[in-house]
């Protein structure tokens, strides 16, 4: 489909700066030239895209809102969101790579790290020369990270880390991982674990039917000796990892609009060209209903993100507002992916079209960064003041 057909039904461009539009067009061009030509094959072959992180670094997609002194681009939150949207129009795996690196690795090091940690890691992460991972989820504790079993214990000359993390994006590729573990007092601490530390391994998780162009794996710690300088000094407690999730969930809210746009634009073009019963299938009311609902939902999601971005820019967005946007927008995108796939008939299951890949990817997106149901319960808690989790 022509890029001019990407919808802006409510003329939201009027609310964007020239810089936002410039960033969007450069990331869009990069996705067209670098991601789209190879993404289907990478996903079919269940392998990552070679050199992806360095490429993301070159286009400024890693840590866009981290200040320039640490290698970031010093952009605002709306620019970050726009970048995520454009990347996920290509594939959720590409957005995942950028969101983990930006929100879950660079953000905690920038926000809670020492000056030395920032200087040591942030510039390499921003360039994509270093690949980071984020370890919160464990085999026995996903939605309930406060019950984590991974431990960090003080020793004579530093710390020892024991335990395991599961479902970790980029674990098999990472040079470092920001890992969350409990100390002797049961307080959650952030630890930077580096590749090569004895007792640290990262086995890959094979045979996924979702996010196939992204590497997922475990982080296993067997008496890993951690020097004191690798502990994040600026935060204690579950609010450390959960504050990183605020940033990543916000980015996902924007990102999935990109996946929905890719499905919508493909469906518009296909249904106008494909003829059945002597007419384009776009001329049938049932198909028009679907297209009209897709555009309505995409437009509503865009509005939600834009205002959430304004709130993020003034640091007034609440975690519950972010949960609402993540939950609403991922549901919107997964429904558009599934419905639009049907509109292509048999062709919809083929790799020549993006729907099946987006629909499968979005099964992970609706699960990670807090499941669909957990975000509903966060909203329920915000409304009632009553915690229904436990
Ligand atoms: P709770 O008692 O509510 O809170 C504990 C402490 O944390 C604070 N807090 C937050 N702080 C910042 N941001 C938030 N969103 C926060 N939510 C809570 C809270 O104020 C409290 O602070 P303090 O100072 O009083 O101690 O915690 P809880 O144990 O009841 O859990 C609440 C719940 C269920 C909402 C939370 O655990 C949760 O969000 N669970 C979902 C887990 C999750 O999202 N995991 C994601 C793993 S990372 C991932 O999926 C990456 S995929 C990336 C990719 O590939 O793109
Ligand atoms: P569970 O917590 O076991 O939940 C199973 C079901 O029970 C869900 O439907 C859930 O909604 C429901 N449920 C749980 N508790 C309640 C409740 N109180 N009330 C009602 N229903 C409930 N994690 C990381 O730390 N870092 C990463 O980089 C990362 N990347 C990921 C990449 C992929 C591809 C995937 C699939 C996951 C990734 N995750 C990562 C893990 C992800 O965050 C977890 O899978 C997610 O938080 C859910 O945890 P779980 O899988 O253990 O499911």
Automatic annotation (TrEMBL):
Residues 17-129 form the Acyl-CoA dehydrogenase/oxidase N-terminal domain. Residues 133-224 form the Acyl-CoA oxidase/dehydrogenase middle domain. InterPro entries: Acyl-CoA_DH_CS, Acyl-CoA_Oxase/DH_mid-dom, Acyl-CoA_Oxase/DH_mid-dom_sf, AcylCo_DH-like_C, AcylCo_DH/oxidase_C, AcylCoA_DH/ox_N, AcylCoA_DH/ox_N_sf, AcylCoA_DH/oxidase_NM_dom_sf. It catalyses: glutaryl-CoA + oxidized [electron-transfer flavoprotein] + 2 H(+) = (2E)-butenoyl-CoA + reduced [electron-transfer flavoprotein] + CO2. Its EC number is 1.3.8.6. The keyword Flavoprotein applies. GO terms for biological process: fatty acid beta-oxidation using acyl-CoA dehydrogenase; fatty-acyl-CoA biosynthetic process. Pathway: Amino-acid metabolism; tryptophan metabolism; Amino-acid metabolism; lysine degradation. It is an enzyme of class 1 (oxidoreductase). Keywords: FAD, Flavoprotein, Oxidoreductase, Transit peptide. Its cofactor is FAD. GO terms for molecular function: fatty-acyl-CoA binding; flavin adenine dinucleotide binding; glutaryl-CoA dehydrogenase activity. The keyword Glycoprotein does not apply. Residues 237-378 form the Acyl-CoA dehydrogenase/oxidase C-terminal domain. PANTHER family: GLUTARYL-COA DEHYDROGENASE, MITOCHONDRIAL. Belongs to the acyl-CoA dehydrogenase family. This is glutaryl-CoA dehydrogenase (ETF). The lineage of its organism: Bacteria, Pseudomonadati, Bacteroidota, Flavobacteriia, Flavobacteriales.
């Amino acid at each position: 489909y022509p890029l001019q057909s990407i919808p802006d039904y409510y003329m939201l461009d009027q609310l964007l700066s020239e810089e936002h539009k410039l960033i969007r067009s450069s990331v869009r061009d990069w996705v067209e030239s670098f991601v789209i030509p190879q993404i289907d094959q990478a996903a079919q072959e269940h392998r990552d895209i070679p050199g992806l992180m360095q490429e993301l670094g070159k286009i400024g997609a890693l840590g866009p809102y981290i200040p320039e002194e640490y290698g970031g681009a010093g952009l605002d939150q709306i620019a970050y969101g726009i970048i995520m949207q454009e990347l996920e129009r290509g594939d959720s795996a590409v957005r995942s790579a950028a969101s983990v690196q930006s929100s879950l690795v660079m953000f905690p090091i920038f926000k809670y790290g020492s000056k030395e940690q920032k200087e040591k890691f942030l510039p390499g992460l921003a360039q994509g020369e270093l690949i980071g991972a984020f370890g919160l989820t464990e085999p026995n504790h996903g939605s309930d990270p406060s019950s984590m079993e991974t431990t960090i214990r003080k020793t004579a000359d530093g710390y020892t880390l024991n335990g395991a993390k599961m479902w970790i994006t980029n674990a098999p590729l990472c040079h470092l991982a920001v890992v969350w573990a409990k100390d002797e007092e049961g307080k959650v601490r952030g630890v930077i674990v580096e590749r090569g530390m004895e007792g640290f391994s990262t086995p890959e998780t094979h045979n996924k039917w979702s996010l196939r162009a992204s590497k997922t794996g475990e982080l296993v710690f067997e008496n890993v000796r951690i020097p004191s300088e690798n502990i994040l000094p600026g935060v204690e407690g579950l609010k450390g990892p959960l504050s990183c999730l605020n940033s990543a969930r916000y980015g996902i809210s924007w990102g999935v609009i990109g996946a929905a746009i890719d499905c919508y634009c493909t469906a518009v073009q296909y249904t106008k060209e494909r003829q059945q019963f002597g007419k384009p299938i776009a001329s049938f009311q049932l198909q028009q209903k679907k297209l009209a609902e897709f555009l309505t939902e995409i437009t509503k999601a865009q509005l939600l993100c834009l205002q959430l971005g304004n709130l993020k820019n003034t640091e007034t967005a609440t975690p519950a507002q972010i949960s609402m946007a993540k939950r609403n927008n991922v549901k919107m995108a997964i429904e558009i992916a599934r419905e639009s796939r049907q509109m292509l008939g048999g062709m919809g299951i083929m790799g020549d079209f993006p729907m099946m890949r987006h629909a499968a990817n979005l099964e992970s997106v609706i699960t990670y960064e807090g499941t669909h149901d957990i975000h509903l319960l966060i909203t329920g808690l915000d409304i009632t003041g009553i915690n229904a989790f436990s």
